[in-house]
Amino acid sequence: MPLITWNESLSVNIEEFDGHHKKIIKLLNGLFDAVAVKKGISVIQPTVAELIDYTRYHFAAEESFLEKHSFPWINSHKHEHDELSSKVLEFQKQLSEGKAMVDLALLNFLKDWLTRHIMGSDKKYSSFIKEKGKS
Ligand SMILES: [Fe+2]
Ligand SMILES: [Fe+2]
């Protein structure tokens, strides 16, 4: 069973970003699978790197979209992205130094963060855009 499954309740009603979220979920599930079958660091490290790179790409895309639409809560949204990014980069450093390994606690943290962020903050921009479209 995958760690996390995309479903309509996670939709932000913007195809591009739903696509990004689906891809992040796919990468996260890939990492979960790698951990479940006890893959070594040589597999885990590039998988983590791919997840981080893609998530950064997604955060940047969302942020420039929010800027373009003068989204009023852009700063707190960016702050949430930044906070996660620095946490994950710190983890990546520890991983490369052999001081940490991907475990279920980390995977569950990422799953919860992502779900909460999409359901809360990302959906906030989706309803803002919808309202804006009406006016
Ligand atoms: Fe997002
Ligand atoms: Fe976001």
Please tell me how large the radius of gyration is. Answer: 16 Å
Element string (H = helix, E = strand):
HHHH
Distinct small molecules bound, one entry per kind: fe (ii) ion
Helix fraction, binned, reads: over 70%
Overall pLDDT score = 96
Strand-residue fraction? under 5%
- Return the domain count: 1
CATH superfamily: Hemerythrin-like
Structural class: mainly alpha
The CATH class assignment is: Mainly Alpha
* Sheet having the most strands: none
Could you characterize what this model shows?
The structure is a single chain. The protein is 77% helix and 0% strand. It is mostly helical and 135 residues long. Helix 1 (15-36) runs antiparallel to helix 2, helix 1 packs antiparallel against helix 4 and helix 2 packs antiparallel against helix 3 (74-96). The radius of gyration is 16 Å and the shape is elongated. One fe (ii) ion binds next to helix 1, helix 2 and helix 4. One fe (ii) ion is lined by residues 62, 77, 81, 117, 121-122.
Label this structure with key terms:
135 residues, mainly alpha, Four Helix Bundle (Hemerythrin (Met), subunit A), 77% helix, binds fe (ii) ion
